[in-house]
């Protein structure tokens, strides 16, 4: 396995646990960060930015995540990459289970005041961020097969931009605290890396033989 990816997995897992600990214990650093993040919440008069934020929220709903996952998994079947196809299907199906399980465990209330879109369930972590990370990740994996070098880096930068806009949209619409968004991002990266590393793991078919 790629050691850099393992270190990245460990780092994101640590950061998720750090944010989770802050949520459970109401740490000062988390409260201050969330209060600062609330400055990005939309004013009802800001209809242009509200519509932009709604677009990014709708584009990363679970049904979009699941549908895109199915489509890309079939593309990998066409490319004879069956293991990657299987783990993409598994990942797409389980993103909602992961988000629901974590939300129910932490049972964190949404930010006070009205939101500009309908919301369901608890706040932490942001399910939209988990979906956004998964979506951009599997699209990047597909694109990386055909593009190398600087083009690949451009696509990666574009993916980070999209994920950032999704995170901003959830805070701007009043549905999440900043820490909810960060928690969703970190656990989304963890889930994506776990799936990718499992899809790349080599299994030896060699059977040890005794001395004759």
Automatic annotation (TrEMBL):
Location of the Phosphatidic acid phosphatase type 2/haloperoxidase domain = 85-196
InterPro entries this protein is in?
Answer: PAP2/HPO (IPR000326), PAP2/HPO_sf (IPR036938)
> Where do the TM regions start and end?
61-79, 86-106, 126-147, 154-171, 177-198
What Pfam families does the database record attribute to this sequence? Answer: PAP2
What Gene3D superfamilies does the database record attribute to this sequence?
Phosphatidic acid phosphatase type 2/haloperoxidase (1.20.144.10)
The record's keywords, sorted A to Z, are: Membrane, Transmembrane, Transmembrane helix
Protein name according to UniProt: Phosphatase PAP2 family protein
Source organism (scientific name): Halobacillus litoralis
């Amino acid at each position: 396995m790629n050691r850099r990816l393992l270190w990245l997995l460990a780092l994101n897992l640590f950061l998720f646990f750090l944010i989770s600990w802050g949520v459970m214990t109401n740490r000062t650093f988390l409260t201050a960060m969330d209060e600062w993040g609330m400055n990005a919440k939309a004013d009802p008069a800001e209809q242009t930015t509200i519509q932009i934020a709604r677009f990014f929220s709708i584009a990363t709903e679970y049904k979009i995540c699941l549908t895109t996952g199915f489509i890309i998994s079939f593309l990998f079947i066409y490319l004879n990459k069956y293991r990657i196809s299987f783990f993409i299907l598994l990942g797409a199906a389980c993103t909602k289970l992961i988000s629901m399980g974590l939300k129910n465990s932490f049972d964190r209330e949404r930010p006070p005041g009205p939101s500009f879109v309908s919301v369901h369930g608890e706040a932490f972590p942001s399910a939209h961020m988990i979906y956004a990370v998964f979506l951009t990740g599997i699209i990047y994996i597909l694109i990386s097969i055909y593009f190398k070098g600087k083009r690949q880096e451009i696509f990666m930068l574009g993916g980070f931009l999209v994920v950032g806009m999704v995170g901003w949209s959830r805070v701007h619409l009043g549905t999440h605290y900043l820490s909810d968004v960060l928690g969703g991002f970190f656990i989304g990266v963890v889930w994506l890396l776990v799936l990718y590393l499992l899809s790349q793991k080599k299994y030896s078919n060699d059977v040890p033989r005794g001395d004759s």
